[in-house]
């Protein structure tokens, strides 16, 4: 091998390593040292048992009519200040910070906790029981890093 050819394998190895490290970015990297996870997926999950704080009148929403019938919920509130949403497998508690009636059928409620903000837009449907009414609308969830997910719901409110 000539001196020029002896250098070639080392040179190629160095270029490949530089390329690999240069193509790596912080996206998708987990930093355990300060317990932050970049690019974590923000997901709204279902649950079936009502939290103990919810007793009596409430609103409970599902992804669709079939899940509502099966008792699989994504959201529940106590008709007052407390609500729950299951986020990334964890049932998460929220406190209402604002409520506006847009018209006789539509409302917007805003909630927050230490890590998330949530906006619920509801539209009243028909009465489907003695004391329950169907609702449809959207849930917009934003985490402390600005990541947002919006989903539609089908549910009911009543006593």
If you had to describe this structure to a student in words, what would you say it looks like?
This protein has helices spanning 3-23, 65-70; strands at 30-31, 36-37, 44-45, 58-62, 75-77, 82-87, 90-101, 106-112, 116-127, 132-143, 148-158. It is globular. The longest helix is centred in the first third of the chain and has 21 residues, at 3-23. The model is unreliable at 11-37 (pLDDT under 50). The chain has one domain. It has two helices and eleven strands; from the N terminus they run αββββαβββββββ. It has an eight-stranded antiparallel β-barrel with strand order 4-5-6-7-8-9-10-11. Strands 1-2 form a two-stranded antiparallel sheet. By secondary structure, the protein is of the alpha+beta class.
How many E-type strands? Answer: 11
Low-confidence stretches: 11-37
Task: State the secondary-structure class.
Answer: alpha+beta
Give the domain tally. Answer: 1
Mean pLDDT, as a whole number?
83
- Helix and strand string, N-terminal first? HEEEEHEEEEEEE
Largest sheet: 8 strands, antiparallel, barrel
Strand content: over 45%
* Strand order of the biggest β-sheet: 4-5-6-7-8-9-10-11
Could you tell me the radius of gyration in angstroms? 24 Å
DSSP summary: helix tally:
2
């Amino acid at each position: 091998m000539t001196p020029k050819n002896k250098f070639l394998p080392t040179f190629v190895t160095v270029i490949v390593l530089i390329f690999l490290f240069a193509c790596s970015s912080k996206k998708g990297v987990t930093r355990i040292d300060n317990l932050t996870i970049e690019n974590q997926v923000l997901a709204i999950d279902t649950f079936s048992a009502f939290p103990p704080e919810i007793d009596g009148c409430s609103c409970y929403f599902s992804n669709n009519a079939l899940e509502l019938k099966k008792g699989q919920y994504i959201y529940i509130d106590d008709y007052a200040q407390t609500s729950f949403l299951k986020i990334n497998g964890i049932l998460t508690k929220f406190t209402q910070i604002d409520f506006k009636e847009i018209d006789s059928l539509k409302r917007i409620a805003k909630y927050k906790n230490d890590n998330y903000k949530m906006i619920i837009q509801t539209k009243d449907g028909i009465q489907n029981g003695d004391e329950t009414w169907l609702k449809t609308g959207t849930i917009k969830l934003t985490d402390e890093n600005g990541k947002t997910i919006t989903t539609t719901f089908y549910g009911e409110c009543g006593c």
